[in-house]
Amino acid sequence: MHDWLASHDVEPSGPITTIHERPWSTVLRVPTGDGDLFLKQEQPVQEYEVALTVALASRWADRVPEVVAADFERSWLLTRDGGVRIADSGAFEAYPRALELYSELQGGEIPHVGEFLEMGLRDLRLPVVAELYEPFFERDHGLEPAEVARLRALAPRFLALCAELEALGLPASIQHDDLHQWNVFVRGDRVAIYDWGDSSVGFPLWSWLKPFFALDDAGMDPEALRKAYLAAWRSFAPDRDLRRALEVAVPTGLFPYAAQIRRQYDATQAHSDYGTYLPQRLRQLLAALEAA
User: Fold this and answer.
1) Would you kindly state where each structural domain of the chain is located, as residue ranges?
2) Pairing of strands 76-80, 173-175
3) Residues of the chain with pLDDT under 50
4) How far apart are the C-alpha atoms of 200 and 282, rounded to whole Å?
5) What pLDDT shows up at residue 218?
6) Beta strand 190-193 with 173-175: parallel, antiparallel or unpaired?
7) What is the pLDDT of residue 219?
8) What is the per-residue pLDDT across 7-30, written as a single tens digit (0 to 9) for each?
9) 93 CB neighbour count, 10 Å cutoff
10) How far apart, in whole angstroms, are the C-alpha atoms of residue 116 and residue 173?
């Protein structure tokens, strides 16, 4: 590792330490005389994050991680310190700005969907997700048999909601899928979105899921977040239709999110350490579909 860092003119000024080690990636802190750098070492399940982040940084340098170096063979990504997460600082006033920046990025990345699929991002566009729903529940995923039966019975409702979103006509784009308050960083006036490892190609407004869940923690007016996120989409559809799409994005978006979790756990054998999380999210899906 030290030789690789030296090849990119990076000289650590102190010990390299592990920030976290998870089944899908490890993040190391590399102190330097010019501030901390962070080295993310990807596992195969999300190795595409390296190419994805490099591509996004080439087009949206003001709002994504600042890439210092990348190794596509090793699946290593070296980035600059993004600052402080709004979850840690409590600076939730930056959240609407983050969503506004993100939605602009989504709109601009529509022409690059094919590129993302070639990188290895999962195809979770609406027709794919609609076809995936019923086969997914051939496994119980840690749910009780009665819960699985209820989710299967809700297939027509889920498909109808997907059809409603399809009729809106929003093009598929990059879908971060983890846009919570721990992935929004602030450094001075710079607001940036980090950790693109859960990304897929899908219905763009499914990215509303995590901000929606963060509203209680943030203590924010949901309208401020809605307006910020929808600002860049108003050239695609009327505001009334977009607001309805945000409502539908929660019960529909929970399913592809769960499908991503299932894929990640299966690929990394992380079931024993994270086994309660998937059924928790599927129970949220059940409640949301029954209420929709």
Assistant:
1) 2-80, 85-291
2) unpaired
3) none
4) 19
5) 75
6) unpaired
7) 80
8) 999 999 999 999 999 999 999 999
9) 12
10) 9
Q: What is the DSSP code string of 204-257?
A: GGGGGHHHHHHHHHHT--HHHHHHHHHGGGTTTS-HHHHHHHHHHHHHHHHHHH
Beta bridge partners of 183: none
CA dist., res. 155 & res. 158, Å (int): 5
Provide the Cα torsion 98, 103, 106, 110; round to 10°: -160
**Given this model, what pLDDT does residue 217 score?**
74
- For 193, the 3-state DSSP assignment is strand
Per-residue confidence (pLDDT) for residue 62, from 0 to 100: 98
Superfamily of domain 85-291: Aminoglycoside phosphotransferase (APH), C-terminal lobe (3.90.1200.10)
Which residues sit opposite 112 in a β-bridge? none
Confirm if 39 and 64 have CB atoms less than 8 A apart: no
Q: Enumerate residues 6+ apart whose C-beta is below 8 A from 110.
A: 171, 172, 173
**CA-CA distance, 163 to 169, in Å (whole number)?**
10
Q: What pLDDT shows up at residue 38?
A: 98
pLDDT of residue 21: 93
Using DSSP's 3-state secondary structure scheme, residue 25 falls into strand
Closest by CA position to 178, among listed 107, 120, 253: 253
φ and ψ of 47, to 5 deg: -65, -20
Please state whether 219 falls in left (phi above 0), alpha (psi between -120 and 50) or beta.
left
What pLDDT sits at residue 64?
99
The structure tokens listed for 203 are 């219905």
Q: What is the pLDDT of residue 73?
A: 97
Cα-Cα-Cα-Cα dihedral sign, residues 57, 61, 65, 70: positive
What's the topology of domain 2-80?
Phosphorylase Kinase; domain 1 (3.30.200)
Q: How far are the Cα atoms of 55, 74, 179, 267 from residue 169, in angstroms, in the given order? A: 26, 39, 23, 33
